[in-house]
Amino acid sequence: MYERLFQRPPDRHSDFSRLARVLTGNAIALVLGGGGARGCAQVGIIRALAECGIPVDMVGGTSIGAFMGALYAEERSYSQIRIRAKQWTEDMTSMMKTMLDLTYPITSMFSGAGFNSSICSVFKDRQIEDLWIPYFTITTDISASAMRVHTDGSLWRYVRASMSLSGYMPPLCDPKDGHLLMDGGYINNLPADVARSMGAKVVIAIDVGSRDETDLTNYGDALSGWWLLWKRWNPLATKVKVLNMAEIQTRLAYVCCVRQLEEVRNSDYCEYLRPPIDSYGTLDFGKFAEICEVGYQHGRTVFDIWRRSGVLEKMLQDRQGTSKMKAFDVLTCPNASFTDLAEIVSRIEPAKVAVVDDESDYLTECEEGLPDGPQEAYADFQSSPADGGSDSEEEPSLHHLHPSVAPPKPSADAAPPWFSGQDGQRPPSDAP
Fold first, then answer.
1. Which element (helix H / strand E) includes 193?
2. Which pLDDT score, from 0 to 100, does residue 4 have?
3. Half-sphere exposure of 222 (CA within 13 A, CB side)
4. Which residues are catalytic?
């Protein structure tokens, strides 16, 4: 019916389609994990996602995934997402801004003022609840030793809190309760389970976290930073492979969430993606274009495989429509599914006019209100012909007469069969 009216297929990306999927339990969530500069690959995967036509009804993220996910939930255009993400990564590579943000390292190496300014310049005073797509971000509450899921409030503050690596940035004080919030990667680096608990049927999870690496340099019991600096700057020195502070923090986040990550990967609701970005470091923001292209090529290949193998068809299939249609025999359009509210309306059966059967065993409202005894007499009266009736034996009863035809008035001498006196007895008749 929908196709006959509009002569075009339903728009999967419209707000009505998103509302219909959420209401019917068919929402598709996009979850972006943390991993520093490797998260730039998520921008390329978002481009491939849009080209493939996969709708997204919910976005969530941790650390760099919280930043990229917020851009996706706020912007309707991929080109704007890429431009704003690239501008922010350029600020992250500015040596001057980094030097000006240095502080005496009691709580952290940097004061966080410069980092706050870069995040605030991207999102301004936007609130999470005002985004185009429902969005959540994960932080680690070190005051209450708990995971926090933020679905409302200041967008830039909670994105910044979710990106606060220990030792680099000070914890952010929650403006609501004053709790100290740190990077969400320490407690849930890929929150696909959170999206599932919020009603998503399918979760597309993009992991850009650190992987196990055993070919590191064995430097012994102590490590001098001056020695590392000499090895890196001297072109004739033997190269060593030692993790920096940011990489150690991301690996700690991965270790803390390895069990949860395995559960997500093995779940039946999660579609797990990991682009080949292991060769890039946590702070390689200067390679934005290169990492973004790697993510795009990987996403396009994976989504093409999904299309040919039927994964996309299964993802967009209504999980409740088939069983409900069989149970209630609902009229449906050919090859239609719950993808638009207009299509849902077209599934509703028209109301059927109730047909009253003269010989039905059910009682009318008048008959139900009568006492048990006189009901039989009333039924006899209904089936008996009128005193002044016609010769036809098939004359309709009184309740089937046209409203303009008044029923015959009973005589004063004749009492109706259901009439009874105050003592419950039938009054005596004058007839012999």
1. helix 192-197
2. 62
3. 3
4. 63, 183
Measure the CA–CA gap between 282 and 168, rounded to whole angstroms. 13
Q: How much is the pLDDT for 378?
A: 47
Kindly tell me the number of DSSP H helices and DSSP E strands found in the chain. Answer: 18, 8
Cβ 73 vs Cβ 59: under 8 Å? yes
132-168 b/e with 16+ CB inside 10 Å = b?
ebbbbbbbbbebeeeebebeeebbbbbbbbbbbbbeb
Two structure tokens written together for 365: 């409202």
Burial annotation 304-338 (CB, 10 A radius, 16+ → b, else e)? eebeeeeebeebbebeebeeeeeeeeeeeeeebbb
In 10 A of CB 16, how many CB atoms? 15
Residues in the chain: 432
Q: Are strands 200-206 and 270-273 parallel, antiparallel or unpaired?
A: parallel
Give the pLDDT band (50/70/90) at residue 376.
Answer: low
* pTM as predicted: 0.70
DSSP characters for 383-427? HSPPTT--S-TT---GGGS-TTSPPPPPPSSPPPTT---TTSSPP
292 three-class SS: helix
Taking only the tens place, the pLDDT of each residue in 327-370 is 444 334 444 444 555 555 555 555 555 444 444 444 444 444 44
CA atoms within 13 A on the CB side of 351: 2
Scan for tokens 């509450």, then name that residue: 141
Token reading at 129? 């609840």
**DSSP per residue over 295-344, as a string?**
HHHHHHHHHHHHHHHTHHHHHHS-TTHHHHHHHHT----TT--S--HHHH
First to last CA, the chain: 71
The CATH superfamily holding the domain 8-213+255-320 is Cytosolic phospholipase A2 catalytic domain (3.40.1090.10)
CA torsion sign for 271, 275, 276, 279 is negative
Model confidence pLDDT, tens digit, residues 117-133: 999 999 999 999 999 99
**What is the spatial distance between Cα 60 and Cα 29, in angstroms, rounded to a whole number?**
8
Give the residue among 27, 132, 151 at the shortest CA–CA distance from 75. Answer: 132
* pLDDT tens digits along 111-169: 999 999 999 999 999 999 999 999 999 999 999 999 999 999 999 999 999 999 988 99
Average pLDDT, stretch 195-204?
95
- Is the per-residue pLDDT at 293 higher than 80? yes
Mean local confidence (pLDDT), 8-21 = 84
Question: Which amino acid is it at 40?
Answer: C
